[in-house]
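Mods, move this if it's the wrong board.
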Amino acid sequence: MGIEAVSFFPLILLGAAILLLAIFFYYVPFLLWISAKVSGVNISLIQLFLMRIRKVPPYIITRAMIEAHKAGLKSLTRDELEAHYLAGGHVEKVVHALVSASKANIDLPFQMATAIDLAGRDVFEAVQMSVNPKVINTPPVTAVAKDGIQLIAKARVTVRANIKQLVGGAGEETVLARVGEGIVSSIGSSESHKSVLENPDSISKLVLRKGLDAGTAFEILSIDIADIDIGKNIGAYLQMDQAQADKNIAQARAEERRAMAVALEQEMKAKAQEARAKVIEAEAEVPKAMADAFRSGNLGVMDYYRMKNIEADTTMRESIARPGATPQKPNKE
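Not the wrong board. Structure tokens:
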């Protein structure tokens, strides 16, 4: 057993030595330090070791410093890159953006680049967009000219990033909304849809004069109308709807007048029936009055006959006055 333990002891020592070397080269990246020295970047092994202690990847910081040094950006320091990494930024994108801006003669300080990156925007993509403008296609914009014809327009907006407005500036959605609003305003102010179809560039000129890129992270270079289609005749639809509404109103008023007339007729019939009832009631009292007159001696027999003759004459005259009536002889009693 002692001989076997002695034979395994060198292997244990070798394994321990390899583990120690791995730990040493992890915390002290010697090869990375050599690469930095060869590239002309002044960084010590102690600084690389302290980066490991601070949980900052030495490879990212060293590669960024080498890239900046080779691109001529001598003002970048290790502390600035470490601080930006610890703040949650993307060191490699920031350095790429600074190098691209320097080559394109774009003024982009390190503080602005880090602010843009920490704000959540891709600073490297922004620099690329400043060099190579981007084309944004608007969705179909519907507007109506003064003659009531609907037009559907599509536009291509060429923009480039405004580096100074990237922090706090509005994005692409705002630009598209403003362009759509400008197109609607331009078409709506046109007297005829034919003038818009003949001169679509008038829309672009009017929209560009409004300064729609104010307060945004972009600078609008051009607005080009890609397509214009004719939609519905909105004016005709509105007139039809108005005519139908007027018709319904007229019908409602006529129905109201008819109902009032029917109610008035019913009321007059009720009053006529009431009057006839009163007449019949009054006529029923005549024989009683005549009987009382006979009893009291106020009415004689001859007076009664004269009254009957007058009634007969009146009846005959009424029958003669009616056309086609046969005259009747008075009933003389």
